[in-house]
Design brief:
Protein name: Galactose mutarotase-like domain-containing protein
Family: Belongs to the aldose epimerase family.
Number of helices: 2
Shape: globular
CATH class: Mainly Beta
Order of helices and strands: HEEEEHEEEEEEEEEEEEEEEEEEEEEEEE
Distance between the termini: 43 Å
Bound molecules: 2-acetamido-2-deoxy-beta-D-glucopyranose
Number of domains: 1
Helix content: under 10%
Keywords: Carbohydrate metabolism, Isomerase, Signal
InterPro entries: Aldose_1/G6P_1-epimerase (IPR008183), Gal_mutarotase_sf_dom (IPR011013), Galactose_mutarotase-like (IPR047215), GH-type_carb-bd (IPR014718)
Strand content: 25-35%
Organism: Phyllosticta citribraziliensis
Length: 401
């Protein structure tokens, strides 16, 4: 017992010491590669800053976050900020699910206790992960989630590795269910504004161009965004059509059909789009073309999202209301007409993931991508965010690790 305690104390000291020496004064860990630099923090294994030079050579910080690592634990009103939701991303209907005839109840932390969101009130993006490795261009976080935490069955060990290569952010996530069968679904909950809030003409992202070339369908949801089991068509020309051609996020934002599209009384997007590549036959996600693209004419920055995942959530920051501050690295200090906050539609969240709440929709037959146990393969998520600036960057390069 004593030996074990001493060992753990020594290990903690080593990790702590290594961590401190690698952090900047704001408690952030920096990694970089040609054309791209990013900061990460242990809280939620979150990205806190992502810098690229725009087409005029001006450096822009294009993701939301806070100025320092300690503030994430203090201001919890704006959670999921660039973090990894877990152990099960998005919503769980009624906070219940069944595995092999056993019903489990998870912490209901949304809609006054009606459902679970992002793994409960102590989900993975509310916790400090361990920094397991940190080099000039890569950082790896780990977390151990014990049996019964937030109501989920079984111990889970997980890691998230972020790596930068020229103009590219690589994400690799893995999770192993050690003792019991359990739902696992992870994602990266990054909020984007490709202008770094420095476009003098607009503080929002409605002028960002977005496309989902494989997403002719989406998951139907009720008024509080819980899937009802049906799959809806995104008819050509409809507000949810981002597949037939790229379109600005704001193109249809004033149309009557958009009211209720992101829940009761909500105008905008908070939808799980299906990534349907079945007709492609066997494909390599790294070369098959992006599942989503987002770009801004103002900054000339474009991000193409490549992933092995079969769904894609897009949220147009409908609930932002000016209470979330931007960072010191964003916006203007000399324009008093522009408050230093995120306004409604000020950002876009893009989440690669599986079909949401499929643990409560067995007829979708996605249990192998949602339920993991000691006898199954581990959970894996891979993605690459490839950037081009003024047409140059990742697409003209080899991005394999
Ligand atoms: C932006 O350009 C400046 C000047 O060339 C350079 O020092 C900086 O590293 C660049 N930023 C990024 C993110 O590459
Ligand atoms: C951390 O950032 C927050 C929000 O920007 C700020 O209010 C706070 O003073 C900062 N704390 C430290 C220790 O720098
Ligand atoms: C996470 O770490 C920060 C330091 O970076 C610390 O201020 C905070 O209290 C920790 N939060 C939790 C939930 O452990
Ligand atoms: C909802 O969850 C509660 C436990 O939190 C359970 O008693 C109830 O049966 C569940 N309702 C449905 C319709 O599954
Ligand atoms: C930005 O807009 C403000 C007014 O909103 C104006 O005073 C300022 O001159 C503009 N700056 C640029 C660089 O256009
Ligand atoms: C939106 O983009 C178009 C060009 O694509 C431009 O004409 C317009 O001024 C932009 N609007 C804002 C508010 O930036
Ligand atoms: C704005 O949003 C914050 C965070 O979601 C919330 O706490 C606050 O009540 C909202 N304020 C208004 C005026 O709606
Ligand atoms: C305000 O600051 C921006 C950079 O943040 C700069 O481009 C602009 O010229 C400044 N405007 C004035 C009037 O100083």
């Amino acid at each position: 017992m004593v030996a074990t305690a001493v060992f753990h104390a020594a290990l903690t000291l080593v990790l702590f010491t290594a961590g401190v020496s690698a952090q900047n004064p704001d408690g952030k860990y920096t990694i970089s590669a040609e054309g791209i630099r990013a900061n990460f923090i242990p809280y939620g294994a979150s990205i806190s800053n992502l810098f690229l030079n725009d087409s005029n050579g001006v450096e822009r910080d294009i993701v939301l976050g806070f100025d320092n690592a300690s503030y994430y634990s203090i201001d919890k009103k704006h959670p999921h900020l660039g973090g990894v939701p877990g152990r099960y991303a998005n919503r769980i209907k009624n906070g219940t699910f069944e595995i092999d005839g056993v019903t489990y109840n998870t912490v209901k932390n949304e809609n006054n206790g009606v459902n679970t969101i992002h793994g409960g009130s102590n989900g993975w993006d509310y916790r400090n992960w361990t920094v397991a490795a940190h080099t000039d261009n890569s950082i790896t976080f780990t977390i151990f989630d014990k049996d019964g935490e937030q109501g989920f069955p079984g111990d889970v060990q997980s890691f998230v590795q972020y790596t930068l290569t020229p103009y590219t952010w690589h994400l690799k996530m893995g999770a192993t269910a050690l003792t019991k069968k359990t739902p696992i679904m992870l994602s990266s909950h990054t909020y984007w504004n490709l202008d770094g809030f420095q476009n003098n003409d607009t503080a929002n992202a409605l002028n960002h161009t977005f496309s989902l070339p494989y997403s002719g369908q989406r998951v139907a949801v009720d008024g509080i965004l819980i899937p009802d089991g049906t799959i809806l068509p995104n008819e050509k020309g409809s507000v949810n059509d981002f597949w037939s051609a790229p379109k600005k996020i704001g193109t249809d934002i004033s149309k009557p059909e958009i009211l209720g599209n992101c829940g009761s009384g909500c105008s905008g997007y908070d939808n799980c789009f299906i990534v349907n590549r079945a007709q492609e036959g066997p494909y390599d996600w790294r070369t098959k073309g992006p599942v989503a693209s987002l770009s801004s004419d103002f900054s000339g920055i474009k991000v193409d999202v490549f992933t092995d995942q079969d769904a894609f959530q897009m949220y147009s920051c409908n609930s932002m209301n000016g209470s979330m501050p931007i960072k010191a690295t964003q916006g203007f200090f000399n324009n008093t007409n522009r408050p230093r906050v995120v306004e409604k539609y000020g950002c876009v969240v893009m989440e690669v993931e599986d079909w949401i709440d499929s643990i409560n929709q067995p007829e979708w037959q996605r249990e192998k991508k949602n339920i993991f146990g000691p006898e199954t393969d581990p959970y894996v998520l891979q993605a690459e965010y490839r950037f081009t600036v003024g047409g140059k960057g990742a697409t003209s390069r080899k991005t394999e690790l």
